[in-house]
Amino acid sequence: MRLLMRITAFLLLAVAIPLALVAGGCADGIARGKAEKEILNVLPEIIGPADSYQVKVDGSASAMLKGELRGVRITGSNVRPEGLPRLARLEASARDVKVDTRTYRILSAQQATWKGWLDEEELSEMLRDRVPYLQEVSVRVTADYLEASGRAAYGRVGADGSVRAVPAVRNGREIWLLPRRVSALGVGAPVPDWAGQRVASILNPVYVIPTEGLPLTVEKIATEPGLLRLEGSLDVTKLAAPRR
């Protein structure tokens, strides 16, 4: 199961469990505590192993009985979903959720968002997979740009170099790197338009986020010291209700 589908499953589960607990007679604090514990127990199976997870459920018992939740939120550290990039950090949340208490179908939600962070080690691995003739690839991320360095090998011919680029999102699901400066053999220069387009065509898309069949968008991508951050939103009203 793909990561974003698993995030979707989490959001639905995070709504269903508190409602079930409140319907069973649990008071505010008890319901929230039990809900958070139940969700925490199943997260490794739903999303994947992680160094740690945290869950927060907000809402009163009286509101939950009417199918209203103030918010649900998950954070994960070093999340390792099978067959997908490792996330140094993951966040997913939904706020002001209204649910049909009979079917658990989500009727409305003011906001549902997700964020994922990729570290330099994982980005280096992604580039190695994307461009096989690049050897000894390493990625450095600053607050302003991403720099990939390595050795390009063509048969017996090789040259050391680096590309400084800024990240971008294409089509709401593709991660691109737009070259701004190229260095080869110790000489660096800004990238002319034609050269930038050529390098971009070789590198990109660096990764295609698997969002097929999901009402999900990737809206922002940015660099932080040591990390690449992705942000997006999710229309939870278009999700199927969970099995009970």
Distance between termini?
19 Å
Helix content: 25-40%
Strand order of the largest sheet: 1-2-3-4-12-11
Largest sheet: 6 strands, antiparallel
What is the 3D form? elongated
Q: Which strand-content bin applies to the residues? A: over 45%
Series of secondary-structure elements, N-terminal to C-terminal: HHEHEEEHEEEEEHEEE
What's the number of domains? 2
Average pLDDT score: 79
The tally of helices reads 5
Global Rg: 21 Å
Which structural class do you get from the secondary structure elements? alpha+beta
Model regions low in confidence, pLDDT < 50 over at least 5 residues? none
DSSP strand tally: 12
Features:
six-stranded antiparallel sheet; 2 domains; alpha+beta; elongated; 12 strands; 244 residues; 5 helices
Task: Characterize the structure shown.
The protein has helices at 3-23, 28-46, 61-65, 120-130, 193-203; strands at 52-58, 68-79, 87-99, 106-119, 134-141, 146-154, 157-170, 174-184, 187-190, 207-208, 216-224, 227-234. The protein is α+β, with helices and mostly antiparallel strands and 244 residues long. The protein folds into 2 domains: 3-118 and 213-238; 120-208. Strands 1-2-3-4-12-11 form a 6-stranded antiparallel sheet. Strands 5, 6, 7, 8, 9 and 10 form a 6-stranded antiparallel sheet that branches. A hairpin with a 2-residue loop joins β6 (146-154) and β7. α1 runs antiparallel to α2 (28-46). The longest helix has 21 residues, at 3-23. It is elongated, with a radius of gyration of 21 Å. 30% of the residues are buried. The model has no long low-confidence stretch (mean pLDDT 79).
